[in-house]
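discrete fold record:
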Amino acid sequence: MTVMPATEPSTPQRTALRRHYLMCRPEHFAVTYAINPWMDPAAGADAGRAVEQWEALRAAYVSLGHEVSLIDPIEGLPDMVFAANGALVVGGRAYGARFTFPERAAEGPAYADWLRKNGFPDVLLPEHTNEGEGDFLTLDHVILAGTGFRTDIAAHQEAQEFLGRPVVTLRLIDPRFYHLDTALFPLGGGNVAYFPGAFSPGSRAVLERLFPEAVIADEADAAVLGLNAVCDGRNVVVNAEATGLIGTLREHGYEPVPVDLSELRKAGGGPKCCTLELRP
């Protein structure tokens, strides 16, 4: 009898898709107020270093073949760099943002105005509080929507009606992960990576049912905002400190692209926070 040698399971081949991102240069970035657990006005932040790190993030996207558009920063809006919060754009339609805190309220109209003037005339100004892609993450056939800290559940229904995509509600329970995009990111192909501890028991059960092959992150990587990442289907732009997650992603056939956004993390931001995807 001939015994065949054991073979290792093959690593899946991942395919990158070209994306179009909107970003805002952090010319006015500062930490002058505290609206999340990451922010410490007494410690402040170095705006010049934040710009350098942001430029490296933009360069990473360009090197991967993605298109990057820019919105002009507005003085007095230090968090406008976090473009993901400005809207949710799906199928050429834009569901606008209505921010929880008055310090960021003017960002919603600014992003809506840019979208109308740059090829997205169908913009809905929302009735309900929501913070754009901070709490809405789009997969091929479903939108995952976070609530618990910033976005009202009513906004989930409002977005579903406007965009015509099914929306699945997930409840966040850890204030460090106040937006969904700090605890989960889409990998493409109908899969996600996430940190279970950020979610309520019922929401964890939903995630386990929807994504049995998900990449699971531990608390150490979540705590450096490793899940505030951007994946194009193959490449994952991720905070460099999330070393365990980076290794796990490689094991699953993804190509991590580590970046240093430590200065912007002083306001609770990472690669995804700085990146609003414009989906035609």
